[in-house]
């Protein structure tokens, strides 16, 4: 029998192999990421593994796909449910992007700490929003929804196997092999000719809309390895002649703890595609829709920490507007150094980030009474704090990656009011709860505090600080 985590690991590996065949530059990205990780481990030793073992970091991937209808997203949820992955977080890229990016998104991932340690594969999944009149007028919306309703992204056999794997939490080897084959096949780039006129009509609204609604299939849009030093990776990729996007999205690089998520990518490549013309003939063309993303993960922030991060983003925007000739990264780094605690201990003391706590094996013994607060327990060596890895995404960063790889800004009618989409709507659309990432991190932290308190005979959840 093949368990869910084994299915998830095998799916991630096969997807990576398939994507490497389709986008060879991805293999270069993986190779350079591995080199940077090995060099960073040699230089930093155990500190390099503060946010995950080198084996986890090297194997880690997140993918991204795009679908057009709630039904298609519901099917995606069933497939990833088979892999022990649940929808976490709601991301509205319509509001985060300056360009026209008419999608809302969630991320499917494991939520249990042990499952994340076994294989932390995640898939950022975006849903087109045809009901938003800022992007689609009534006539185009009608034609788009008719087109989407007439396609089948995932075969019934795949969905039936997915339901069985989710219910039984495993599959017999023969059925597991069939499930993996069908699941990977569903995300391969199709060779079916694309209606050029229809694709270009949608592309005038948004290249993302064309990529979703202009074709009769879906595909893996990017696959993302994790790297320990993203600045060094950016430099090495550029040295190899790979055209990278202009910036690294997310927090600036600085001397303090790594927080949240930093991402960058190489630019979308022109890939050969068959295009069907109005007279029915087929020509060889090229589309730029897929790119190679890479990420560096940091510590998960609490709502208060996230509010601080968002405030600093706004301040950085304001400073960049006041000083257009200045380096925006340097402006952000200066603000970050001035306002963000420079140590993990201070982050914990100000409740800006999440940590798990563990009784230190070399703590004082012989009847010595422990302190009664978590901060004192840690300061005096009774307890050790380990940062909780940020497992999720930043909408502005995701939108920035999307925008930097688009061929044009698209169009948006700002006189129209946007259609309402939120986490509750998305939960109903896919018939399963979209989980709150903060609640998951808080639960992880609280459980560790409860366990430490039990070990030391203290009630620490009522007197954390």
What does this structure look like?
- Helix 1 (4-22) packs across helix 2 and helix 13 (303-322) crosses helix 14 (328-339).
- This protein has helices spanning 4-22, 24-44, 54-59, 70-82, 93-96, 113-118, 138-149, 156-168, 173-186, 196-205, 207-213, 230-239, 303-322, 328-339, 344-349, 374-379, 395-404, 423-430, 437-456, and strands at 2-3, 61-67, 86-92, 103-109, 122-128, 170-171, 194-195, 222-225, 261-266, 270-276, 282-288, 292-297, 355-359, 383-387.
- It is α+β, with helices and mostly antiparallel strands and 465 residues long.
- It folds into 2 domains: 2-223 and 411-434, 2,3-Dihydroxybiphenyl 1,2-Dioxygenase, domain 1; 305-385 and 447-456, no CATH class.
- It is globular.
Summarize the topology.
Blueprint: E1 2-3, H1 4-22, H2 24-44, H3 54-59, E2 61-67, H4 70-82, E3 86-92, H5 93-96, E4 103-109, H6 113-118, E5 122-128, H7 138-149, H8 156-168, E6 170-171, H9 173-186, E7 194-195, H10 196-205, H11 207-213, E8 222-225, H12 230-239, E9 261-266, E10 270-276, E11 282-288, E12 292-297, H13 303-322, H14 328-339, H15 344-349, E13 355-359, H16 374-379, E14 383-387, H17 395-404, H18 423-430, H19 437-456
Parallel strand pairs: 2-5, 7-10
Antiparallel strand pairs: 1-6, 2-8, 3-4, 4-5, 9-12, 10-11, 13-14
Helix pairs in contact: 1-2, 1-9, 2-12, 4-8, 8-9, 10-11, 13-14
């Amino acid at each position: 029998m093949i368990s869910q985590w084994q299915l998830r690991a095998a799916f991630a590996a096969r997807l990576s192999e398939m994507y490497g065949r389709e986008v060879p530059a991805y293999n270069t990205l993986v190779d350079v990421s591995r080199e940077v990780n090995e060099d960073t481990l040699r230089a930093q030793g155990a500190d390099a593994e503060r946010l995950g073992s080198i084996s986890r970091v090297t194997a880690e991937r997140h993918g991204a796909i795009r679908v057009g209808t709630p039904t298609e997203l519901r099917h995606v949820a069933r497939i990833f449910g088979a892999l022990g992955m649940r929808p976490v977080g709601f991301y509205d890229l319509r509001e985060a992007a300056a360009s026209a990016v008419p999608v809302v998104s969630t991320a499917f991932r494991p939520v249990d700490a042990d499952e994340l340690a076994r294989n932390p594969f995640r898939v950022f999944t975006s849903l087109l929003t045809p009901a938003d009149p800022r992007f689609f007028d009534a006539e185009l919306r009608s034609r788009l929804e008719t087109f989407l309703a007439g396609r089948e992204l995932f075969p019934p056999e795949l969905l039936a196997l997915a339901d069985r794997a989710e219910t039984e939490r495993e599959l017999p080897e023969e059925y597991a092999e069939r499930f993996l084959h069908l699941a990977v096949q569903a995300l391969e780039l199709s060779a079916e000719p694309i209606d050029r006129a229809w694709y270009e009509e949608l592309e005038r609204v948004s290249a993302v809309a064309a990529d979703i609604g202009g074709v009769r299939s879906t595909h893996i849009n990017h696959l993302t390895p994790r790297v320990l030093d993203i600045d060094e990776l950016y430099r090495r990729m550029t040295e190899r002649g790979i055209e990278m996007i202009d910036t690294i999205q997310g927090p600036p690089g600085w001397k303090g703890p790594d927080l949240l998520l930093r991402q960058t990518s190489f630019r979308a490549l022109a890939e050969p595609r068959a295009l069907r013309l109005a007279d029915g003939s087929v020509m060889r063309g090229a589309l730029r829709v897929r790119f190679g993303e890479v990420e560096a993960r940091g510590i998960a922030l609490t709502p208060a920490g996230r509010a601080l991060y968002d405030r600093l983003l706004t301040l950085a925007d304001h400073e960049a507007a006041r000083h257009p000739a200045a380096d925006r990264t340097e402006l952000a780094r200066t603000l970050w150094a001035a306002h963000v605690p420079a140590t993990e201990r201070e982050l914990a003391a100000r409740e800006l980030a999440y940590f798990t706590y563990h009784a230190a094996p070399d703590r004082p013994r012989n009847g010595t009474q422990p302190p009664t607060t978590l901060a004192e327990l840690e300061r005096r060596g009774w307890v050790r704090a380990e940062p909780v890895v940020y497992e999720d995404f930043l909408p502005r960063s995701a939108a920035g990656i999307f925008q930097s790889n688009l061929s044009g800004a698209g169009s948006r009618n700002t006189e129209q009011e946007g259609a309402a989409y939120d986490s509750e709507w998305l939960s109903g659309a896919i018939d399963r709860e979209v989980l709150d990432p903060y609640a998951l991190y808080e639960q992880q932290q609280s459980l560790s505090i409860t366990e430490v308190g039990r070990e030391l005979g203290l009630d620490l959840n009522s007197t954390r600080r």
